[in-house]
Amino acid sequence: MNEGIVDRVRKIIDHYGISVSAFANALGVQRSSVSHILSGRNNPSLDFVMKLMQAYPEVNLYWLLNGLGNFLKDDNIPIAPTPEKSKNTVDNPSLSDVGDEILTPNNHRPTQIVIFYSDGSFASFNPKKSKDL
Known about the structure:
434 Repressor (Amino-terminal Domain), mainly alpha, Lambda_DNA-bd_dom_sf, 2 strands, DNA binding
């Protein structure tokens, strides 16, 4: 069974076209941990599987653990409808007058925005200094 999960971890790495190092970075584990799992030296731990599911939530956990089902989660699974009351009603009348404007305190302005990607890379943006911010 262990060899099967190793093959499935390899399939995930191949599917995303990333290196073992980038995969380890995305999971937040050391590269040696992934290498030991791929070589069969160590079994994947629960912590490893949970980090994999957090980094790649579209991967089907049931498939990863036992090889059954689809590689990616099925988006066609019906979701139970929410009750009508929760769709567009407001129970608190004072909240119905709230507009769509964004309120930010004058002394709190963003100085840097960092976006982290699943392949371990990132992009950094520095907003222009403006009175409108």
